[in-house]
Amino acid sequence: LIEALEGGSDVEITSRRLAESEIRIRAPWWSDLASGLFGGVVRGTALPGIRDAMCGFAFFRRAAASDIFQRQRIERFCFDVEPLRIARRLSYRIVEVPTAWGNHPVSKFRPVADSLQTLVDVGQSRYYDGA
User: What is the spatial distance between Cα 74 and Cα 25, in angstroms, rounded to a whole number?
Assistant: First the structure.
């Protein structure tokens, strides 16, 4: 991530969906399926071109972070998608970098209820963004 920052990007996010990424501990099949479906919705409606908006690790340049996070409204599962939408709208350069990732076996994610809430959140982020 530091190399991407030094290369002039404003926002760097890790991505499990890059060929160079290493998946050390796979998620259960149902979680992997839900992640893939939701990722498709995010790519199709909110962040075209971003392969993995919800991997969970990101760097922001200080000025970009200040500019972006003061505009953020969503606090639930989609909290990591909204700042990327805002960054893109404000023309910040976003770079995805490979990661070494492992699924954590303990999760509070409720597949049905939380999947529905994340879809609502994506819609809200589009509404807040005027798109």
Answer: 29
